[in-house]
Amino acid sequence: MEATYLVLILCFIAALGQTALALKEEDCEVCIKTVRRFADTLDDATKKDYKLIETEFKKFCKIQKNKEHRFCYYLGGLEESATGILNELSKPLSWSMPADKVCEKLKKKDAQICDLRYEKPIDLKNVDLKKLKVRDLKKILNDWDEGCDGCLEKTDFIRRIEELKPKYSHGEL
């Protein structure tokens, strides 16, 4: 009788340990958000076939930027990817596995997948552009898919951002 209770207690502790080890969204934010967004683009027929999922993921990756692009690179969703663990994404998705569980599996294969983090957005309404680094000014323009032809000085980048602010602020100012 005591052995039965001991076994039950050990099983309960093991179950608690598993839930504590579950991947949280903030621990692997780029992976979880990207997998969810990708899975939402799939129709029911595609969701059942892992080969079709892989094909669709490669198409999905062609239009990704920044952290999502890097995520695609790690999985093998880009032509220039050095390695590929795409089946670690496609097969679990074909079984309707949730994004956080898919990312747990991916993390076991390649830990750097969960090292990807989103940068905090720059609040253009309250930031003093003169205090930002040129790198950050370039990032603002890049996020807007805008260039700055002939920009050499920091003031050139600031002027270009000020020009484009009304187009991209959408009532924030």
UniProtKB/TrEMBL annotation:
Residues 27-122 form the ARMET N-terminal domain. Residues 1-22 form the signal peptide. InterPro entries: ARMET-like, ARMET_C, ARMET_N, SAP_dom_sf. It is found in: Secreted. GO terms for biological process: dopaminergic neuron differentiation; neuron projection development. One of its GO terms (cellular component) is extracellular space. Keywords: Developmental protein, Disulfide bond, Secreted, Signal. It holds the Pfam family ARMET_C. The keyword tRNA-binding does not apply. Residues 126-168 form the ARMET C-terminal domain. It comes from the Eukaryota. The keyword Secreted applies. Belongs to the ARMET family. Required during the maturation of the embryonic nervous system for maintenance of neuronal and cuticular connectivity. Essential for maintenance of dopaminergic neurons and dopamine levels. This is Mesencephalic astrocyte-derived neurotrophic factor homolog. It comes from Drosophila lebanonensis. The lineage of its organism: Eukaryota, Metazoa, Ecdysozoa, Arthropoda, Hexapoda.
